[in-house]
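Annex B. Sample input.
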Amino acid sequence: METLPEAFKALSPYKQFVIYRLEDNPKNPGKKIKRPLDYRTGAVANPLDPKNWADAETAIAAAKRFGKDHGVGFVLTKEDPFFCIDIDNCFDTTTNKWFDFSQQIIHQFAGAAVEVSSSGKGLHIIGSSTPLQHTCKNGTFNIELYTEDRFIALTGWHATGDAGRDFTAILSTFIDEHFKKTSIANTTTLNNANWWSTKPVEEWNGPTDDDELINLALKSISGKKAFGNGASFADLWNDNEEVLSVAYPPQKDDVYDRSSADMALAQHLGFWTGYNAKRMELLMRQSALAREKWDTHRTYLKRTIHTAYMNARENAASKNESILCVYKQSPDKPIALPEGLPDVMRFNHDLLPASLKNYVCDAAERTQCPIDFIAIALITSISAIVGRKYSIYPKQQDDWEVIPNQWGCIIGRPSTMKSPALKQALRPIKKLELIAQEAHKKELKLYKATKSVDEMNYKKVKEQAAKLDKEKAIQLMLSVDDDKEEPVSKRYIVNDATVEKLGELLNQNPNGLLLVRDELGGWLSLMQSEEGAITRAFYLECFDGNNSFTYDRIGRGTVKIESCCLSLIGGIQPSKIASLVRGALDGTIDDGLIQRLQLAVWPDDHDSWILIDRKPDTDAQKRVDAIIDTLDSLPNHAPNELRFDTDSQILFNTWYTNHMKKYLNDEIHPALQSHLMKMPQTIAGLALLFELIEGGRDQVKSQATTRAISWAEYLITHAKRLYASVTRGPYIGARLILQRRNKLPNTFTPRQVVQKGWMGLNTTEIVNEALTTLVDYNYLRLEEIKNLSGNGRPSQQYTWK
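Annex B, continued. Sample output.
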């Protein structure tokens, strides 16, 4: 659209124009979705937010600037007089004619602005009217009517008529024919905040834990019949398109009728939550049905929940019942325990640059370890080789700088092959370390020989100076260079060093080092101790890679470390990292150490094993070695500063904005929130690494950026599992005790459980939490035994029900 068509000139006085981008619909191949954007930056934006609106001229220029597949839209509000009738699929491709009913509507609104929609098979009819009550959809004729809270994707194709022409009388008749008016009473109820409850109705007594509630709903047998449709709660929750397409046939070009599915899910959740409206909304947003419309159409989700609530009331009234139909759990029947650890994404080798894939896959297969272990350790080691040579500025104007060093941690039970995985992944960097050691030996041998010769020369000069007067002797002695420094070995890896020695090594290797601990437990124990307070502070400074650190010691004096750049990788067992996580969660060790383990992964254990005995893929090894040699040979000086190119900046800004908005809320634990708030730095660093691995040296391009952003979703699932190991610890412990109940007597004490030495149940406090959970879920009965002496606290014992 070069200019605003004459048919839409009536819209131009209103600064309510937005831009959009046509994108492929991932859930409906061959179809397009209209993605609203910020006209200034091209980032995804809320079209209903006035700060994203522009005048027509500005919006048209922005869409033209961003290029192909970008268009201009207009936002309907209460403040403007316009309406839009949207008719879908009304073009007959066999006859190349518009269907009769669409032509009838055009004739009915003769003179209104009409254009062909972006699909090429629909129409927009835009006119003016005074406010009228109406619903929005007519599924019979695939027509929709909007007067507010909606953006219309304008095309200008074959646009005729006048959007400013008044059709109040005609529209009123049209609404009576096709859109049943919303009753004033119902509208008043929706706008009345009293119905929007934050508590369940009194007769409900279900679980207050969301995961437990969803687990019950997913397992419900009667779900398919409860609301008169063929889709169960699980089908709706997981967006089972095969089932939903049959239960809710599509009314336009889509897989199924999404509005009907939204309503069905709201009705299910009303039953399970006791019509706690706020909880219903939060849970709906966690489902796979969640979509952009829930945010861009401001009242849509609230109206859906409200309708489900009103339907429940009407249903109860029709049966002369005063209470709603809601979930009630049996007081005696055992309740299914929620899952302990949340699921994590499996590592997809497409997350890796092509040049690394074969090496990582080959090593993981031969080692019989999760591919995650090899990938994380290799990427971390490459980040240490790049170190401070390159940095990225994730914003175009801001001075926020990211050094790409990474902190990784592979988490798994004993015998999950953590150590062999580290050995395979670190082979390339250890090869560099060996080469550097051999080079240092030669340099040291030359240095010693040179020093011996210099000492002999110095002795001769000294003898000559003794025969001269004082001034000439001083000049002669000053001409002798006997202060050559002993060569220092180039280092890549450090395993166990005091903070003072590590500082010295970093000064000698300003590009940075890789801290490798086969077992991170000892290092973390030091970090948690009082003696490790200074050490901990120093390591925290090393995370960003561009900080300095000064320490003062009586023996060493004042030592300033100019380049605190450290990458970190190691393995640890779940039970050992739990104490650090617990400290972050309860605030006792809340300085951000655990949150810096951005590349912490905790994959599922392998459930099978086969003997693999083959030679390593030498071609893959050579490719990785060549990449690492190339990165190692890059000049080691002040960092080369890169930025995203135009397309990549849009990609990063969009992800960055959505990520921050999603996790800056009160629904997640502050410790996990802090972890996720550090992730943009990690993603920017990974994008830079991927660009360098693929040979880029000027700008970070879209392929590397897209790959890095894909890591975010993967890493977030592992971060949630890491923190859930403590927040959901009682469930984990309870499930373990329940699985091994045959190893306990019918009546037992917490001490007997502790004595079993089961993983994660090693303290009385943790065991008591797990047993209390089993009591709450009706598996155990608690009995208190009074002390026979009458003094002291009663002891506790538990009996299986």
